[in-house]
Amino acid sequence: MPRYEEDRIDYLFKLVIVGDSGVGKTSLLLKYVDDVFTDTFISTIGVDFKIRTFDMDGKKVKLQIWDTAGQDRFKNIVSTFYRNAHGILLVYDVTDVTSFQNIQQWLKEIDKYAGQKAKQVLVGNKCDLAPRRQVSLEEGRALAATTSMMHIETSAKTSANLEALFSDLTRDLMANFEPVNYGLSKPDLTPLPPSHKVATGGRCGC
Amino acid sequence: MDPTPLQVSAAQRRMQQMMSMAPQQCEELIICHLSRRLDLEDDKLDVLLNGRGKPGKKTPLMRMASPFQRKSKHEQDKDSMVYADNQIDSHHVNAINKLVLSLQNMEDLRKEGLFRVNGSVTRQEELKEKILKDCSLDLSPYTMHDRANVIKQLLGDCSSPLLLNRHYEAFRQALAFKDNGLETAEQRCLRVVQLLMLRLPKNNLAVCKRLIPLLHTVAQEEASNRMCSRTLGTLFAPHFLCPKDANTIVYHSLLPVAQETAAFMIKFGAKIFQIPAGLNRDVMHFLRSEKRLSDESSGHCTPVSTAVSPVNTSLTFRPRSLDLESDNTTKAELAKLQAHIESLPQNERRKWKKQLGDASALVETTTTPCRKHVRSKSIGSSIRKRLPHFGSKCKRQLSCDSDSQDEVPVTIVNINFEDYSTSTAAIIDCQGRKSSMPTGASPVLTAAPNLHSRRRRRHSDGEGTPPKVECTENTAPSKPDSVKPSTPLSATSIRVNSPHSYAPPLKDINDNDSPLPFSENEISILQPCNRPKRVKQILTQVHKFSPPQALITSKGTISPEYRRCRSRDRCRPLGVLHSPVSVETSL
């Protein structure tokens, strides 16, 4: 029994990270899930995902986070992953104003493919690079307010606000979605009632 | 830094010259060289050449696209036209060229994340629209990220990838190469990529010639822009070698190779447009002989003569056994099988042979090589068993008739320089006639028993004839009533000259790299493939079970169809020659 107890989860959320290429989507994910930050500059091919399970307000939550490629050539692949997503993280780079402007394009894309229920979060990444900042916190807040999104500024390098981002989002999602309750997490191991006898040795009726 | 006049090496100029003089022969040469380096069995060559395999046969790419679907016959026929590869249209070429040229400023190229960072989507849409309409557009209002991304978008717009879908298999094989002792894996891959570049349509090649050096430069500035060739390869992979309408699964399965390919090309930059040494040698020889011809005929050099003349190559094919160790196990297993079958009683044995098909043919030839009707086990054999005299007479008559009707003889010249110091050559004449055997110390092997041969070989025998191997095209008369669909219309006869008398001038051959004297020293060229299985059989005898790397048909293509063979065997080896071979290492 305890073996299954460990695997038991209350909530399973599927999150998708989107945004222009080079804004730090993969870095964000790697830092959050594996707590590593690499300065490498490698493009994501198609999509990739990572899973993190943690306790939140006494409930076990499993986050399945999909990291997508920002390259436009991969967009047709990525678009199929918006479906059934519970939360979408729109990431921009605070040191790159065009990535902030392109958030509009991403919103259009999401409207097209994602479900209505999906919770959206606007994430301004690389907030540790203060001297090179091109997008102010206010601008970000203003954009988030127009589409009633959450807004947060993070840094994958210093992991500032990273936990806050995912815990806030998770709390929000827990309020909006029902807990999962599927067979694998809690198998029914109660013994069969004694009246129920399995026919043994007899021939089948057909 | 301005690459506007693309630098053309002497070898490239010669290649262009040959391309304009005799495009067909040029193609043949390239294909010859490609087929030597790649493993193009079955219909892979067809796919490589014209983008379509045999009808009803699916390429790996398509199999992935529809793994479990059952298709109607009609659909299957459509499937055979797999890769409808189109050239990039000239508007796109001009636009891409213009954008590439605008990105020559080192300041721009050192910008972090060039080609990766998105830039403004709205500005890019505008730029793309404008530049396709008007190439003389002023690009100053657009950032380098905009320009770099529009290049990608323009490539993405095209209906087929830049390097064409049909070349996928070739690139895949090339990237999987290992060091072979003579060349490193990279060198081997580079040769194939160089050859494949020559196979690209004009527009695609033009784009490559602009784009690849640019990306190479970007990759060299990795310290400042952090874009290494691998990262760039990832970004360009979908535009280089992935089908445009593929679904996610296919995409993911094809991307690794595409990525590697793109990264490889970017890493080597302009080197991929150089002419490989072996091909260069052949081109030079071609041009020299053309010149001599025109001198001889005192200016009567007509393009017609070049169009039909044979293409000469110093290229030689090696038996696969040298490459593949796994062949040894095949040999061993076949020997075991043979021993087992030999131990069986007669009727049991026959049953086995029937079941085993191909393999039985192998066993058959090793035991009774001169038997006719390898696979037949019909009334004829039972009649012969009871009436021996009747059988033999009747049969000879039959076979003679058919010979004169529709058979093209099979000729194999095989030279196998096993330890680079001795060579073994065998001439096999399908008709059972004696081929002209070499005499004297300087052996000249000639095997041209073609009944239908109409054309003469251009070069006369004798000392000082330049090519080591000469493939002469012969055209067999086409027979509309011919039963066998696989009978080729033309055949090639092969002449091998001893290299003793020939010392090729190597001085100016190699622009690119040093010559590799041992890389091309096995010959196994064979011939009309209307009886391919027979050919295979012979080869297995001569080559000790190793199938040939290539079958050359008249068009210089490698015939994939050495499977269907129904005719009786009258082949037997006429002799084996041993002669020392000098490999030209010096002048």
Automatic annotation (TrEMBL), chain A:
The keyword Lipoprotein applies. SMART domains: ARF, RAB, RAN, RAS, RHO. Transmembrane segments: none annotated. The keyword Nucleotide-binding applies. It is found in: Endomembrane system. It comes from the Eukaryota. Its main location: membrane. Signal peptide: none annotated. Keywords: GTP-binding, Lipoprotein, Membrane, Nucleotide-binding, Prenylation. GO terms for cellular component: endomembrane system. Belongs to the small GTPase superfamily. Rab family. This is Uncharacterized protein. It comes from Littorina saxatilis.
From TrEMBL, chain B:
It comes from the Eukaryota. Transmembrane segments: none annotated. Gene3D superfamilies: Rho GTPase activation protein. This is Rho-GAP domain-containing protein. GO terms for cellular component: cytoplasm. InterPro entries: Rho_GTPase_activation_prot, RhoGAP_dom. GO terms for molecular function: GTPase activator activity. One of its GO terms (biological process) is signal transduction. The keyword Chaperone does not apply.
